[in-house]
Amino acid sequence: MYPLITVYLPTHNRKDLVPRAANSVLAQDYDNFELIIVNDGSYDDTKAILDKFYGNNPKVRIIHLEEPKGACHARNIAIKVANGKLITGIDDDDEFLPHRLSSLYENYDESYAFVCSGYLWNYGYKTRERFVNERKIDLNDILSLNEASNQVLVKTSRLEEIGGFDQTLVACQDYDLWVRLISKYGDALRIKNATYIAHVGHEKERISNTKNRLLGYSQFFEKHKNLMNEKNITNQGFLRIVANEEKLSSIGLLQQIKAGYPILKLRYFISSRFKYLAMLRKRYLKHGKMS
Question: Averaging pLDDT over each range in 91-95, 119-123, 210-214, 276-280, which range is the top one?
């Protein structure tokens, strides 16, 4: 008997996007799951749409919150009421590929803190694969870069034991949780190939704006800097540079490359120095044209 897997789906004012996320969970080739949708105080038609299309589905539970308190508050509520032995999540603007749950479960091993996979970064017109090679992720790896993406499959009891998502952080809450899981339970496993689509080409309001991202990375750094070595600290500095959309100097690039991830950093160096070309590239990835 395959164990029950809980999927949590927080949403806020995404009435046009959340059905795609929910439907992608319901289309899984792994049958034994429950979907918990937490409507975080939406004031558009999200409540009516969720009740109409999913209210009578036995695999779906819908929790409506009167006031919005943030995605991590909504996730923590879902974790508390989850029935699944294992749990994972999806953002309301993203999408599961049909084999996501089965692929993660087939590779799940309690000796790892959690299992995760690569994903597809969908710009609108073009899609790019990210982190699609199989590897173990240790504490040193995760403290330099979030190589686990924004969702993992983990024992529900482990999330309960470490207190779930840290609601005091304004961003990087998932990243922080993965660090705490690896710190407590050991290395994680990332499986080969993508099972998740992150949609970044839509015009809806983002959960984390530039100011929040920068503050979130700063909070993350202060929380975990006692665990970091010199390379981790350098890489965290790079993440804050990106979050703040700063230019990276030639000297800064050379210093950063010494800490690893040369291709990632070279790409950012070019885009930060040639912002008009970067804007044209983004326009092409999103619309298929530069004008």
Answer: 91-95
Please tell me the predicted confidence (pLDDT) of residue 55.
96
Q: How far apart are CA 266 and CA 257, in angstroms?
A: 8
Structural domain includes residue 204: no
Q: Could you tell me the CATH number of the domain that includes residue 150? A: 3.90.550.10
pTM of this structure: 0.93
Angle, CA of 167, 42 and 59, to the nearest 5°: 85
Interatomic CA distance for residues 1 and 267, integer angstroms = 46
Angle between helices 46-54 and 18-26 (to 10 degrees): 20
Please, which residues have CB within 8 angstroms of residue 254's CB and are 6 or more apart in sequence?
none
Tell me which residue has tokens 């299992």: 115
| Domain-ending residue, one of 170, 199, 228 | 199
Residues 114 and 180 sit within 8 Å (Cβ to Cβ): no
Burial environment of residue 66 by CB neighbours within 10 A (0 to 12, 13 to 18, 19 or more):
exposed
**Which tokens sit at 114?**
């959690």
Closest C-alpha among 189, 195, 21, 7 to residue 103 = 195
pLDDT tens readout for residues 215-245: 999 999 999 999 999 999 999 999 999 999 9
Q: What are phi and psi of 114, to 5 degrees?
A: -165, 170
Q: Is the pLDDT reported for residue 97 higher than 80?
A: yes
Domain that holds residue 111: 5-199
